[in-house]
Amino acid sequence: MPNIWKIVPKESWRDVVAGYADRIRRIRDMDPWNIGHSDKPSDTVPEKCIFSTGDEPLAKHIIQLLGYFGSSTYFMALQVVQTVLDLWESGQFVVVPLNIRFVFECWGRVHFGSSILQRLTKGGDVKKEYELTERLTFGTRSEIHLPWGDTTSEWKSINIMDCVRGLKDVDPDSEKNYDFLSESSHPSFTENFYFQMAGPPLSNWDNKGFEKVTRPLLGRCFCILEKSVDGIQKEVFYLVSISSALDDLPRKES
Q1: What is the pTM of this model?
Q2: How is the chain split into domains, by residue range?
C-alpha cells in the first residue's frame, strides 16, 4: 500500500501550558458572588452617595441601571474567561484571542459605565448621562429582541471603539491591545496562524523560530486577559457599591 501522509500529534504544547498553571488557578479561584461585598476598603467609593432615594429619581435610575449592568457584564465576562482557560489548558489556542477580545470589550463597557457614574456623582448633567446610560445598556444598531417585546430600540448603541478608547486612562495601550487581539482573531496566514500551530495536533514548538515568535504572543494574550479580569472586577465593585448605597440612605424630607 502507498504511504499515506498524516500528522502525528505532538505533546510539546503541554509544557507551554504548564507554565501558566498558577496564573490560571488564580483566575479560576475568583468568586463572582463576592462582587460588591469586600472587607477591603476602596478609595474609589465615596462614603456616601450624593443622591438620596428622593432627591433625583432620574439619577437614581441611572445608578441602579449601571449597577445591574455591571453585575450582569461581570458574570457574562467570567463565563467567557472560564472558556478561555478551558481552551488554554487543552491547547486550543486558535480561538483564544477572539474570546479574550470579548472579555476586553466587557472591561471597556463597564469602564464606560463607571465614567458615567463618576461624572454623575460630581454634579454632571443628569439628562446627558441618562442618554449615554440608555445607549450603553439598551442601545442597538440592528434589529434585536428586546425584553419588553419590541425588536428595535430608540437608542443607538455606543460604538465599542469608544469604549476601548475610554480605557486609555487605565490602560494607555488599550487601542494597541485591541488591534493585536483583532488581528490574532482573523483567519489568515499571519498572526492567527501562530495560534493554530501552537496546540495539537501541530504543536510546532520544536521549531525554535516559531517558539521565538509565539511565546510572546501567548504571553501578551494572557497578560491582557489578567488585566481585563482585574479591571472588570474593580469597575463593577465601584458600580455595585454605589448602587447598593442608594437604599441605605434616608429619604430627603420635603
Answers
A1: 0.85
A2: 56-244
Let me know: does 190 contact 183? Beta carbons within 8 Å: yes
From the CB of residue 20, how many other CB atoms can be counted at a distance below 10 Å?
16
How large is the angle between the packed helices 208-246 and 57-89, nearest 10 degrees?
A: 150
Cell numbers of 70, please? Answer: 455591571
Tell me if 33 sits within 8 A of 231, measured CB to CB. no
Q: Is the pLDDT at 149 greater than 60, yes or no?
A: yes
What whole-number distance in Å separates Cα of residue 204 and Cα of residue 9?
Answer: 10
Residue 12 CB contacts under 8 Å (≥ 6 apart), including other chains: 203, 205, 206
The answer to whether 206 and 85 are in contact (CB under 8 A) is: no
List pLDDT tens digits, range 18-50. Answer: 999 999 999 998 866 555 444 443 444 444 444
Least confident of 82-91, 110-119, 131-140, 213-222: 131-140
Longest dimension (CA), the chain: 94
Residue count of the chain = 254
Cα–Cα nearest to 66, from 132, 140, 161, 1: 132
